[in-house]
Write a structure and sequence with these properties.
The chain is mainly alpha-helical. It is 64% helix and 4% strand.
Length: 569
């Protein structure tokens, strides 16, 4: 290209639209043909990658410190100014390529996606999308600022999770009630954000000439291979097959704990009367032990993770004013991933890092692809990458020179993970079914009281083994505490579908691990160059919504739990 690109991630952090504009203009003014289209696509990718990298690095910065006003101002400026202009420029280049009729090799799926994006694009939606980003940032600020005083010290909500594992039920209840009281204090603020989000999202759909926001998001998420009705069939299959299995798990837990009923504060304590699992005491220890797990599973994975550690591509500790949750994002200009978590010393933190590690391996395995558009793979296969890694890595929690656990502790950890896998599907169904209801009924869906009632009804349908009597306010506002609902709507069924795919990948590894890992890596290396159903097949699984496939997965999980119980000390 005639105009220079950024030389480093540090340099791009100082770029504004004025530096990117001539790069896009040069691309738009080129005449493309069959001979030069590959070079043109490569140059376009380099520009887009730096815009993408800037956005993702700003997102990392603003979620790492939600109280940093300077970073927040820069992020807001990006969303209001550079982002909309870059999207306009991207749309111009997509139009040029689509109108050329050229179909570069390996670009069939990106072209399909671009056609959908071009059909969806409206300039009038750009300021609305920027507004939506800012509302989502306000949600992060609200949640990230939630703290409680416990034993004379200020704790974040995540930092209270270890207390919920305390063997004294009265302590657990006190901690649970305290955290819910603090979360409910923000009820009106979250409701106010919600009342802004729903009409804004309806406007996005109207501007795109679509019947409702669900149709809009289906197009944004590029769900070409399944429908809302498939999701509802999946909900029904979960109700038929998984809800009874979840009830069996909670009943065994109730009996082992000697309780009359399972209250929310009883779900995380060890049911075997053992001390809570404490797999690490520091972030350095978490990194060292996780590296050892990945090296034992597949040396290449260990090398990838060590690269991230050396290059400061991990932010794992929990602290005040850090956004909640965990994620892995890609710095695509340098072809490296970044992992963000909130670790507080419990086993769930290990599972989260294994999960995000799977996402990071997706970035590494697909880094060879020449065009940014090829790296834009679907959420479903992305979550197969992460959830498969949780299962594939779990046998190594107690092996090697630096294990997290003894064999007996590892059995408990794996049982916890497998039980949570079963318990997750009903919760996923609540989250997904709730969102279908909200956007099928936007007038009611914009009313927080109606949302409370619907969430409560769905909770009773899928989570019926838990006793929430007297805790109705906390129960019905559960949708407040699921960030996906507020920030990335309809992005949740992917987890349920991917978990079913991941169990199939894990099942394959039980008979031939080397072959299963090879298939897994091959699927990741294809990124967004194949249809979703084919990517599942390459990984050794199938995209499924039916009760039979789900039942087979549940049966394997329950069988494994029974085998692991014999290893507990």
């Amino acid at each position: 290209m005639k105009n220079p690109l950024p030389k480093s991630p540090q340099e791009v952090m100082n770029w504004r639209w004025e530096q990117f504009a001539p790069l896009y203009a040069e691309l738009a003014n080129r005449q493309i043909n069959a001979e030069n289209v590959s070079d043109w696509l490569a140059d376009w990718s380099r520009v887009s990658e730096w815009v993408d990298e800037l956005e993702n690095r700003l997102y990392v910065a603003v979620t790492s410190d939600t109280a940093n006003g300077i970073v927040e101002a820069y992020f807001i400026d990006f969303t209001r100014n550079l982002y909309p202009k870059a999207q306009e420029a991207e749309q111009t280049l997509k139009k040029i390529l689509l109108e050329s009729g050229l179909e570069p090799e390996g670009f069939e799926i990106p072209l399909r996606n671009m056609r959908a994006e071009a059909a969806l694009f409206r300039s009038s939606n750009l300021p609305l999308l920027a507004q939506e980003k800012n509302l989502c940032n306000e949600y992060d600020k609200t949640i990230g600022a939630q703290t409680v005083m416990w034993e004379g010290e200020e704790h974040t909500i995540d930092q209270m999770n270890p207390v919920l594992q305390h063997p004294d039920r009265a302590v657990r209840e006190k901690a649970w009630q305290l955290t819910r009281e603090r979360q409910l204090a923000d009820k009106e603020d979250i409701n106010a954000l919600w009342k802004e989000l729903i009409p804004l999202r309806q406007a996005l759909a109207r501007n795109a000439d679509l019947p409702d926001y669900r149709a809009y998001r289906w197009s944004v998420l590029q769900r070409f291979e399944y429908t809302p009705e498939d999701c509802k069939h999946f909900h029904d299959a979960i109700e038929e097959v998984v809800v009874p299995a979840a009830a069996r798990i909670l009943e065994r837990r109730r009996q082992r704990l000697g309780l009359d009923s399972m209250r929310p504060w009883d779900l995380n304590v060890d049911p075997y009367g053992k001390p809570p699992l404490r797999p690490f005491q520091s972030i350095d220890e978490l990194v060292t032990k996780t590296s050892a797990v990945f090296h034992q599973l597949e040396p290449r994975f260990g090398e990838y993770f060590d690269t991230m550690s050396r290059e400061n591509l991990l932010d794992l500790d929990n602290r005040k004013n850090k956004a909640p949750g965990g994620y892995c994002t890609g710095f695509n200009a340098v072809r490296k991933p970044f992992i963000f978590t909130n670790a507080v010393g419990i086993h769930n933190n290990v599972q989260t890092l294994l999960h995000e590690g799977g996402h990071s391996f997706h970035v590494f395995e697909s880094a060879h692809l020449p065009y940014l558009a090829q790296l834009q793979y679907s959420n479903e296969i992305a979550e197969v990458a992460s959830m498969s890694m949780e299962l594939l890595a779990s046998p190594y929690l107690s092996t090697g020179d630096q294990p997290f656990y003894t064999p007996g502790e590892a059995a408990r950890a794996r049982i916890e993970h497998l039980e949570e896998s079963i318990l997750f599907w009903p919760y996923m169904a609540v989250v997904d079914a709730f969102q279908h209801w909200v956007y099928e009924n936007p007038k009611q869906g914009s009313n927080p009281d109606a949302c409370d009632a619907q969430w409560g009804a769905l909770w009773d349908r899928f989570m019926c083994a838990e006793d929430w009597s007297g805790l109705e306010d906390a129960k019905v506002t559960g949708w407040h505490r699921k960030a996906h609902i507020h920030q990335i709507p309809f992005y949740y069924v992917e987890y349920g579908l991917a978990q079913l795919g991941a169990v199939q990948v894990w099942r394959n590894s039980l008979t031939d691990q080397q072959k299963a890992i090879s298939a897994y890596r091959q699927a990741l290396s294809l990124a967004g160059t194949r249809p979703l159903t084919e990517l599942f097949q390459v990984a050794g699984a199938k995209l499924a919504f039916d009760a039979q496939t789900l039942g087979e997965a549940v049966a394997l999980i329950e069988k494994t739990i029974t085998e692991l119980e014999e290893l507990i000390d």
